[in-house]
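To assess whether the prediction recovers the assembly geometry, we first specified each molecular entity separately, as shown.
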Amino acid sequence: YYGSVVNPVSLKSFKALGACLIAVSSTGNIDWIVEDVHDSMVQETMGAHGYLDVEVVCLQDGEFLIPGFIDTHTHAPQVPNIGSGQSYELLEWLERITFPTESMFQDPDFARRTYTSVVRRIIDSGTTTCCYYGTIHLEATQVLFSNYLILHADYYLGQRAFIGKCNMDRNSPSYYIEPSVEVSMAATKALISHIKQLPSNPHAAEPLVQPILTPRFAITCTSPLLSSLGQLAASDPNLRIQTHISENLAEVTFTKSLFPECSSYAGAYDSFGLLRANTILAHAVHLSDDEITLIAKKKSGISHCPTSNFNLSSGVAPIGKYLDHGIKVGLGTDVSGGYSPSILNAIQNASIASKVIAMQTRGNPDASAEFSNKQLSVASLLYLATSGGAEVCDLENSVGSFSVGKSFDALQVNVRNNAGNPAMWGSDSGPRSLEGMLEQFLFCGDDRNISRVYVQGKLIGGTATR
Ligand code: GUN
Ligand code: FE
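The predicted structure of the complete assembly is given in tokenized form:
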């Protein structure tokens, strides 16, 4: 690939390379990168690396590559009710909107009819790695997984994903609850073996699709269930864990009443061995200082879901503060608490959320801190959507940025008029810097501006494939 490339470096910087040459081997991994190559030197540079008679994909003006987006938190079975129930806060929204929709996945045929278009839409939104919550149903969650087979013939050629079956054995409606710890654990183990038995891509560092433990949240899980899940996690250190934490104040109060012996909401998860370096904690809007210290110590990651936090009136998560504590942070769409499946929308709302906090604390800036109470920069937003998400998923050695040995998980972006996104019309006429095009894409772009989506070097979506 030859042309403009944007590569995240840190929370504070990214590289905007106007004439970059990236070599992707047939394994789908990046072989080498030369950051600045004059177009007259492309063939010579290829030859010097032993790349003879190899096709070069040349990007045009107004096109650039960025690493694929990582959605660290979404609910596949909530796509059918996306955009509804915005007037409720979390607990009422779960009861009135979410649980009724999720219960429909008891019917595997409904799952088959629904999940294919869900995954298709998320890929075309630019998400190359996705952390999915399914429902409590084993069969429907297996359908979500097998969907990768349907779409791509070989599942490992599709989207990179973590797929979990929700555990819920209390405080759930009678029509949508698991009857016992034993049933919940048996279904969880069955899903894990089902996903693990499929062949993996020998060139990928890890299987592209993996199971993930998914205790929905402390309210819907009894202590014996959380304890069994903690034991299962202990037997497999590589198994990721995902759950919700401290999203809504009524939820926090209810949780504390259910675990009076625990010091806090985070303390409850920790007491069952569920806080570890590959645990993904969604929301984290209302954490206490002690919980922040605990999560930092356990090296767990936070999935920031700002669209959902605004939409369900949950609050504004102090992401800058978490970053200053060295906590890993990625972005999540949290469909359908969030009303968009696109990480671009999460980026836009993460920016607004950080500005809300910066405005509220104007009289009280924290001069010694780097990120607390400040708005997130474009570099930070790009990082959270890519490299930060990779850290949260414990995949930082294989995805999240372009570097030698990592997988080529990438988006080819097109911000020219011919992409057909009216939000950007008019900007073709003048000269545009790569930094300017990136910012415009992050704030005004949508799936029309994503022409190609690659995972492990393989083209799996984007407008060019439709
Ligand atoms: N907490 C427990 N379940 C859910 C869910 O489905 N969505 C959100 N946003 N929060 C939750
Ligand atoms: Fe959620």
